[in-house]
Specification:
This protein has 182 residues and is α/β, with parallel strands linked by helices. It contains 5 helices and 6 strands. The structure holds adenosine-5'-diphosphate (ADP).
Length: 182
């Protein structure tokens, strides 16, 4: 049997510091709220750059539940698509937050795979206004992405970017990357 080494996936994941709206990928993921009608943080930034047509499309979607993911076009974004997912609001870690955050990543990746999206960029879902501790959230993000990369070769899922907007987020993602791949 072929042994699959996690380290072989190193080139298919990249942690970068920057603004996800500038990412030239097939799809960027939006940390949306249940209305899918825009909000603050990364959601607001994505709607601003994509333009009003994005809101027109999200109005037709009927919102989303926590952990769900829904696809739209990217309009004026460099990315062709936006995958909108709703992260859990972190309360105390005892309200299914871990499972729900994992679903955000899993369902976003499933949506990508089902739509021929091969390059995808994630923000740090739930760790802004929704207050999920970044170090724990990053681990969930990596676990989900690594599972998908191990199950689908590069012809299906080529590259996954984690886009950190601030130094603290970048630090924790980079630390995990080193832990897995150094
Ligand atoms: P949530 O409500 O899911 O917590 P936020 O948008 O408040 O979503 O925050 C999620 C993460 O997105 C935070 O780390 C925040 O700093 C980051 N963020 C905000 N704007 C951008 C952007 N333009 N590109 C990438 N990440 C961003």
């Amino acid at each position: 049997m072929e042994t699959i080494d996690i380290r072989e996936q190193a080139e298919r994941i990249e942690v970068i510091k920057g603004d996800i709206t500038e990412m030239n990928v097939d799809a960027i993921v939006n940390a949306a709220n249940k209305s899918l009608l825009g909000g603050g943080g990364v959601d607001g930034a994505i709607h601003r750059v994509a333009g009003p047509e994005l809101l027109e499309e999200t109005k037709t979607l009927g919102g989303a539940e926590t952990g769900e993911a829904k696809l739209t076009k990217g309009y004026n974004l460099p990315a062709a698509y936006v995958i909108h997912t709703v992260g859990p609001v972190y309360q105390d870690g005892q309200h299914n937050e871990e499972e729900l955050l994992r679903q955000c990543y899993d369902h976003s990746l499933e949506t990508a795979l089902a739509n021929n999206i091969k390059t995808i960029a994630f923000p740090s879902i739930s760790t802004g206004a929704y207050r999920y501790p970044v170090e724990e959230a990053a681990k969930i993000a990596f676990d989900s992405v690594l599972d998908a990369l191990l199950q689908h070769d590069a012809s299906e899922l080529e590259k996954v970017y984690f886009v950190a907007f601030d130094d603290e987020t970048y630090h924790y993602y980079q630390k995990l990357y080193d832990l897995y791949f150094a």
